[in-house]
Design a protein that fits this description.
Two copies of one chain form a homodimer. With 70 residues, chain A is mainly alpha-helical. Chain A is built from five helices and two strands; from the N terminus they run βαααααβ. Chain A has a single domain, classed as 434 Repressor (Amino-terminal Domain). The interface between A and B is medium-sized, with 17 and 18 residues.
DNA sequence: ATCTTATGTAAAGCATACTTTCCATGGCGA
DNA sequence: TCGCCATGGAAAGTATGCTTTACATAAGAT
């Protein structure tokens, strides 16, 4: 599963450290998610979505959408 | 975290067994989710949402809890 | 060149998700 | 009653998420 964590974090101009603190996880957890070492729990996914004010589906890409109709 | 699994499954008139097979998990996993013994992984949450043709947010109800719900 | 800051990553340990196996209970049809 | 059938749930084992600790590296500033 892919995610847009690094992209979204950098858009906000914040450090892994700061995001980690906001989400109440360790910096290593953020790094691991950004680099795809593992997937978040659903609880953490909800926290991340809440932080970025987006839906889980907008941040975590379960399946590439091969269908490119508008 | 609460979820609408049992409700949605019964709406469709299917058994735990059948849902489990469709999602490629065990019947006990479905039962455990319906009865709140644990939360799904984000992968399973995506599979469930896909099965019911809904968003994760429509099926799983997350609310920030003062007591740091896990 | 040295120092600092942001990030990458690994190891060990604990918590949670999920499995298989097993048994219990309530509803229902014959 | 009797025998299924759908569900609940425990127990033990494996896989994965997350923590703390620790060290490495690259880039930028002084």
């Amino acid at each position: 599963m892919k995610n847009r964590l690094e992209e979204l974090r950098k858009e906000r101009g914040i450090k892994q450290d700061e995001l980690a603190e906001a989400l109440e996880v360790s910096r290593q957890t953020i790094g691991s998610l950004e680099n795809g070492r593992y997937n978040p729990s659903i609880i953490l996914a909800f926290k991340i979505a809440e932080f970025f004010n987006m839906s889980i589906e907008e941040i975590f890409i379960y399946r590439e959408n091969v269908n490119h109709e508008k």
